[in-house]
Amino acid sequence: MWPWVYVIALLYFALHLATSTRYGYFRDALYYLACAEHLAFGYVDQPPLIALIGWITRHTLGASLPALLFWPALAGAARIVLTSAFARELGAGRFGTVLAAALAATPGVWWVIDHQFAMNSFEALFWGGLAFTVLRLIKTGNAKLWLVFGAIAGVGLENKYSIVIFAFALIAGILLTRQRRILFTPWILAGGAIAFLIFLPNLIWNVQHNWPFLELIHNVRETEKDVVLPPGKYLLQQVLMMNPASFPFWFGGLLFYFFSRDAKNYRAFGWTFVITIGFFMLTHGKDYYAAPTYVILLAAGAVATERLFASARLSRLQTVLRPACFAWLLLGVLPLLPLVLPVLPIDTFLRYQSYLPFEVPKTEQSFVGETLPQYYADEFPWPGLVEAVARVYHSLPPEERERTAIFGNNYGQAAAVDFFGPQYGLPKAISGHQNYFLWGPRNYTGEIVIVLGDTEESARDDFESVTVAATLTNPYAYRYENRPILLCRGLKWNLQKEWYKVKNWR
């Protein structure tokens, strides 16, 4: 691999680690660390891999922000190298290989994803790994590579279920082209068996728990939690999230797959992209769900650009055009960098954001009207929240503290108490949200509960007495995280016997 590829990957990795402590812990990261304290073969809202990585991290590197962000930053750097390797396999030379790396470091959506300890940062590696394996299959005819495909798919399923969509699109894309012959081999069945065996523990967990993930997805649809984009806006959002500067390249890559003679053996990848985008568009998936599939398009875009510059009409201009590509991408990234990476102090960022000629799109209804983008706002409330909870908790007589539960209306609040609470002598929180529901009410009866994230009016429906014990005024947090902390007494129903009433899977 050309050394500049690794330089780009290293710079990308270093920038993420250098800014890792700028703001704070992301909501989902705290939740995954809570899941890591309850290792299992599955969870309500995700497969087990991210919790396992959290457990390993906590017992090796620790739970600091740099320790947690080491993994997504590393995954992002690996994605850059993978995109370059894909371009090289497609026939890229030195310029095309380095350009692919630069393109893979361009999309704003990946800067955001790779700055969060979550499964999304690993997703592009699994999707890209499947596509790369198929590319090698096409080039070499080695059917045993289906075993590798199966292993990647199996581990990918333990990371995020959406890999099924991409794998289906990839197989469908192959069926639509002359390369369908590579499917008719017993090795593909062996690869499928490997994927199934790796996925089996999680499958059994889901069966034992009555398919909670499917119930979760159903509830999200029913409650209209997500912002639904019409097809035109969805496609426009793809351009924006991938950074408009990269659009000519990845769109050129799509055209390359479908219309270039040199890519006639690789048309399956063009169909794979179209089917994947079409699926998420028709099912109203969030815009970033399709982001991992751009690995195959950016790689092709680099190859197409290199060959265009080598054409008879442009060959004399290569010494100008090649540097211009990197300058164009750099100019496309730098002005927007504060929007996708916390390089600025938060007050400076707010001033920067006020001058932007557009508003950051919202993916969920609850994010609409908030000051900060969700991926920044969800890093601010937690230390102040837990400190306020501790004041309320320690204001109680010792004999009451032992019977006092701390209830979070969402997993972010509960996980924040679990993570920051030990330094204040707080017990573990309980919640009905996502996997916290399965962990149950512990030994609490509900006679005294510190409630987070609820309104007084709603709490009075369940408790005999409700008092505002503390107020929260974090200017950067979402409004529902600034609801007062309530001290509630006398639950009107039995917490142990009627725990199902708090279930909140959405």
Describe the model:
With 506 residues, this protein is mainly alpha-helical. The chain folds into 2 domains: 3-340, no CATH class; 382-502, no CATH class. 57% of the residues lie in helices and 5% in strands. The protein contains 24 helices and 5 strands. The protein has helices spanning 3-18, 27-36, 49-58, 65-90, 94-104, 108-113, 120-140, 145-157, 163-175, 186-208, 212-223, 231-241, 247-259, 267-282, 294-309, 318-333, 337-340, 346-354, 374-377, 382-394, 398-401, 411-420, 436-439, 456-460; strands at residues 404-408, 430-431, 448-452, 463-470, 485-491. It starts with a helix and ends in a 15-residue tail after the last strand. The model has no long low-confidence stretch (mean pLDDT 94).
Brief write-up:
The chain has 506 residues and is mainly alpha-helical. The protein contains 24 helices and 5 strands.
| Residue runs with pLDDT of under 50 for 5 or more positions | none
The largest β sheet comes out as: 5 strands, mixed
Looking at how many chains there are and whether they match, the oligomeric state comes to single chain
Number of strands: 5
- Using the alpha-carbon principal axes, give the shape: globular
Q: Provide the β-strand percentage band.
A: 5-15%
Number of helices: 24
Structural class per helix/strand content? Answer: mainly alpha
Overall radius of gyration: 25 Å
Helix fraction, binned, reads 55-70%
Strand order in space, largest sheet: 2-1-3-5-4
Average pLDDT for all residues: 94
Order of helices and strands: HHHHHHHHHHHHHHHHHHHHHEHEHEHEE
Number of domains: 2
Through-space gap between termini = 44 Å
